[in-house]
Design brief:
The chain is mainly alpha-helical and 71 residues long. 80% of the residues lie in helices and 0% in strands. It is built from 3 helices and no strands.
């Protein structure tokens, strides 16, 4: 396989990963651990905390998309 083909397939894989429900569930678990390490209880977030939680998840997906767009 040519380098270009390998990169294209890697980008496609990352895009698929960013949209995969299992990956998003895994990401939520990682975020929960990160919050707990920071002293925040993910199960006890108020409305503003939940908005931040969703924003963080969306930002991770955006970063993946941006990484894929960068050639």
């Amino acid at each position: 396989m040519e380098t270009t083909q390998v990169r294209d397939l890697a980008r496609k894989t990352l895009l698929n990963l960013a949209d995969d429900d299992y990956f998003i569930e895994y990401l939520q678990g990682v975020l929960d651990e990160t919050l707990e390490e920071a002293g925040v209880e993910p199960d006890h977030l108020d409305d503003e905390g939940m908005e931040d939680y969703v924003e963080i998840l969306n930002e991770v997906q955006t970063l993946i998309y941006q990484a894929v767009q960068t050639k």
